[in-house]
Write a structure and sequence with these properties.
By secondary structure, the chain is an alpha/beta fold. It contains 20 helices and 16 strands. Helix 6 crosses helix 8, helix 14 crosses helix 15 and helix 17 packs antiparallel against helix 18. The termini are far apart.
Length: about 575
């Protein structure tokens, strides 16, 4: 986890679904121990992975702590608010937002759209002077970085001007002094790269999400702020407010005196399709300007925006705030010139031998094995193999390979387990079973199994008498165990368990007939021994009883004789 980079992963929350890999236009994601990590050198910070992550494990760096630090130190601090704010802060006016920002400690609040208007004016004048060819906008930092890294031959065709936010910050510094600090608020992750690289111009870029949380923590409610427009630094912007929508920039640049065809493309995958494989020098008979936007539909669909941020209602509200004028002829009082250079991603193409070896590691030995299902996140099995070679992927990402391994393992377990195994669907039709199960039924069933290789599709109630156990488990889930159940001429122990409630259930049936017979035999022998012991005891008791009686008679006789003799002796003594 690299929290210094604008986009990162919270590893403990990553659910190894590979959706980020699947949607990343740069494949700037590597999987380590089933967890996705961003590769900074390859990432352009478009934020698409943040948008699509179902577990919300992908995050955009907050920078709230850095903003609090800037505000705590005081000084002169200006906020640059992106024109997409109506899509995030719905039913909140720019005046309310400005009032809230000033409560946070900002000296002034201004619209990034001012910088957009400067860029549009400069682009129009530039297009009038350049020869035919294809020219790319510089407004979206994610697109600019993508071209430099992945379409490097087109880098020199990016118009040589700053982005709107850098242009705006330059204008603020010219107006209010170079000692001021500037903070951008918007829906974009790529703006953080601009802030990191040009801190002498843009001190910090913060998302609308972080701003909203900060306002909540400070107890500031936007809806409770006064609706009357607050005073805005540089005054209200005009046509630059439509930059947040696809085609908005073109509307502000288009005119009849630059002989240019204006088109807009949004989404990096669409930009790749538009420019990939084309020699820029091959287009020389006409002049084309391409407004590039990384987010489909424009900045209103930035990675922190919700599904309603680009609704027609937001478009209508933005339009009401925007003057329908062109930026053509606007004065550009600051130098916004910039240059863009090739910065291609360094990568080597693996050899065919390496690719085949990597494919074999996931059980793909022929073209027929290459399903290109895309579950791993890559467009083809060969692309996945290349990712394996460079350490960006793991074999466990191949669902087909995992499923095949699981199937082989489960088949082996079912086949060789020393008990009957059967799996049925919700209609008690057998899906899978082993030979031991067929043996438990009868010889005819065993013959069918050996002939067909399985008992699949046979109704379970035709074979066993206790299907009620399966019906109960299918309906309620859980597990039911029954011991010493009669099954034909056998005695069995049964364990029926749920696999998918209401859909599939399985059972393990163990033949315990022999052990039960042995147990009965042991019980019979024990009973026989006990019976003999009882008889012996009774005989001993009888004999002992007879002996006691005889002894008692003898003793009585002895005692009586002794007693009579003693009486006679006493009488004789009296006479003497």
């Amino acid at each position: 986890m690299n929290r210094d980079f604008p986009v990162y992963t919270i590893e403990n929350e990553c659910q190894d679904c590979y959706k980020c890999v699947r949607h990343c236009p740069c494949k700037a994601i590597k999987i380590v121990n089933a967890r996705a990590a961003v590769i900074p050198d390859r990432c352009v910070c478009c934020g698409e992975c943040v948008r699509v992550c179902p577990a919300h494990a992908k995050k955009i760096r907050s920078d709230a702590a850095r903003l609090n630090q800037i505000l705590s130190k005081g000084g002169t601090i200006y906020a640059s608010v992106a024109p997409s704010f109506p899509g995030y802060f719905k039913n909140i006016t720019l005046g309310q937002l400005a009032s809230a920002l000033k409560k946070l400690g900002f000296t002034g609040v201004s619209e990034t759209a001012h910088g957009a208007q400067l860029v549009s004016s400069a682009v129009h004048d530039y297009l009038k002077t350049v020869p035919n060819g294809v020219y790319l906008s510089s407004a979206c930092p994610a697109c600019v970085r993508y071209v430099e890294k992945y379409l490097p031959n087109w880098s020199s065709h990016i118009v040589p001007f700053d982005s709107p936010v850098i242009s705006h910050c330059k204008l603020l510094r010219k107006t209010y002094g170079n000692s001021i600090q500037t903070v951008f608020f918007g829906p974009c992750a790529a703006k953080k790269n601009e802030a990191d690289e040009k801190q002498d111009i843009l001190n910090l870029a913060v998302t609308f999400v972080s701003l909203e949380k900060m306002l909540e923590e400070k107890g500031i409610s936007l809806k409770d702020e006064p609706e009357s427009p607050a005073e805005l630094a540089l005054g209200p912007a005009e046509e630059g407010r439509v930059y947040s929508f696809e085609g908005g920039m073109n509307d502000t640049v288009r005119s009849g005196d630059c002989n240019t065809r204006f088109i807009a493309v949004s989404g990096l995958e669409h930009l790749q399709k538009l420019l990939s494989g084309i020699d820029p020098a091959s287009i020389k008979d006409n002049k084309i300007f391409i407004e590039m936007l990384a987010c489909r539909g424009g900045c209103v669909n930035g990675p922190v925006m919700d599904d309603t941020s680009a609704s027609v209602q937001v478009v209508a509200n933005t339009d009401l705030l925007t003057k329908r004028v062109s930026s053509v002829g606007r004065e550009v009082p600051v130098d916004i010139h910039n240059a863009y250079f090739k910065n291609p991603v360094q990568s080597s193409q693996p050899s065919e031998e390496e690719i085949l070896k990597a494919l074999a590691s996931v059980g793909k030995f022929s073209k027929a094995d290459e399903l290109n299902c895309g579950a791993c996140g890559y467009n083809s099995c060969r692309d996945f193999a290349c990712a394996l070679i460079v350490g960006k992927a793991e074999t466990s990402m191949c669902h087909n390979y995992l499923r095949s391994n699981f199937q082989r393992t489960s088949n082996a377990l079912i086949k060789y387990i020393p008990a009957g195994v059967v799996i049925v669907d919700d209609s008690l039709r057998i899906l899978e079973s082993n030979r031991h199960f067929a043996e438990l039924i009868d010889e005819n069933t065993l013959a069918i199994h050996d002939s067909l290789g399985s008992l699949a599709s046979i109704q379970l109630d035709q074979l066993i008498p206790f299907t009620d156990l399966f019906e109960s488990v299918l309906a309620n889930g859980g597990e039911i165990e029954k011991f010493n159940q009669p099954m034909g001429d056998r005695i069995v122990n049964i364990s029926v368990f749920s696999i998918a409630v209401g859909k599939t259930a399985g059972a393990v049936i163990q033949d315990v007939t022999r052990s039960e017979l042995q147990r009965e035999q042991i019980a019979e022998k024990a009973q026989e021994i006990i019976r003999k012991n009882v008889l012996t005891v009774q005989e001993v008791a009888r004999l002992f009883g007879e002996h006691v009686a005889e002894t008692e008679i003898l003793l009585d006789e002895i005692a009586g004789s002794y007693s009579g003799k003693r009486e006679k002796e006493k009488e004789k003594e009296k006479e003497n």
